[in-house]
Amino acid sequence: MIILLTGGTGYIGSHTAIAAIAAGHQVVLYDNLSNSHAQVIEKMHTITHQKIPFVQGDVLNTELLYKTLVEYKIDAVIHLAGLKSVKDSSEYPINYYHNNVSGTISLLQAMSRAGVKKLVFSSSATVYGEPQYLPYDENHPTTPINVYGRTKLQIEEVLRDLVDSDSTWRILALRYFNPVGAHASGLIGENPQGIPNNLMPYVAQVAAKELPILHIFGDDYATKDGTGERDYIHVMDLAEGHTAAIDYLINHEGFRCINLGTGSAFSVLDLVKSFEHVLGSKIPYQISPRRHGDLPKYFADASLAHELLNWKAHRSLLDMCHTTWIFKKNSKKGS
Ligand code: WQD
Description:
The strands form four sheets. The protein has a seven-stranded parallel sheet, sandwiched between helices. A two-stranded parallel sheet has the order 7-10. Strands 8-13 form a two-stranded parallel ribbon.
C-alpha cells in the first residue's frame, strides 16, 4: 500500500517509515519540520536504499493534505504529527488542542474528501491517568491527568464517532507506552531540541558529557527500588506495531484502541544500570524531588495487540540503551 505518514520525519515517524518500507509498503512523508530536521530524510534513504517522497506541510493545511492524498494516490494514513510534551501541554493548552485535535480534524476532512478511509492514529497511555489496576488493559477507565493526555482522548472520541457515523472508515488508535531506543544503524534516533524532558535522551546526554548529572525525580515511590517504573518499548518494536496495524485494517472494519507496550515495567535505576552496562562506566546521578504529575508506575497489558495484530515487542532494555548510545555517538560525530 501507499501510506502517508504525518509527522514522518519525527522520531516515531522516521522509524515507522523504515518499518513500513521493510514490510513492502511505499511511504510519503508529510511534516512541518517544527520538531525534526529534513536531514533525517537522507539518513532514511541510506537505510532503505530508496528515495522517499517528502511534502513539507502542516496538518492544519487541509487543502495541501487533500492535494497530497490525491497526488500520491494514498491508500492509508498513519497520523503521528502532534505536540507531545506533557509539561508544555499544561503551559500552552490552546496550542495543544489546536495542533492535536483541530489538526486531526483537518486531516479527517482531507481524507474524507479524497476518499481515503484507513487510518492508524498515534495515541498514548497517558489517556488512562491514575491506575485503578495494573497492567492497564484497553478497558481501563480513561481519566487523563494532563492536557496532552486529554487531547489524545478527545481525538479517540472523534475517531470513534466518525466510524459510528460511517462504517466505511477503518481506524486503529495505538496507545503508546514509553518509546525509546533507535534504529540498529544508529543513523536515526531520538534527537530532541533543547534539554530533554524524557529519561532516556537525558541519560544519553549525561553519558555523552553534554549534561553534568542525571536528576532522578524521587526515590520514595512504592516501587521495587523507590524510583518510577515505566513500560519502555523499543521504537522499532513500536514501528513494527504500526505496520501490523495497517495490515489489520485491510481486512477489518470498525474502530479499536490497542496498547503498544512490552507488558514489563522497568525503574529509572534499572534503565541507568542497563545504560552503564552499555557504556562501561557510571552515569552520575542525584536524587531530586518528585516531578509534578508523575505516576509511580504503569505498564501495559499488551495481549490485545498480540491477539488482533499478531504483534509482540521483543527487543530488550539493553538493546534500547545500546541503540540509543550508538545513535548518540553518531550524532556527536555529526555523521
Ligand atoms: C520516565 C521516568 C520520571 C526524566 C511519558 C513520555 C512521553 C509522553 C508522556 C507520549 C519517570 C523519570 C525522567 C529525568 C527522571 N507520552 N525521570 N529524570 O514521565 O512516563 O512520560 O508519557 O505519548 O511518552 O514523556 O516519561 O521519560 O519523562 O519519565 O527521574 O530527567 O523517568 O520521573 O519516572 P513519562 P519520562
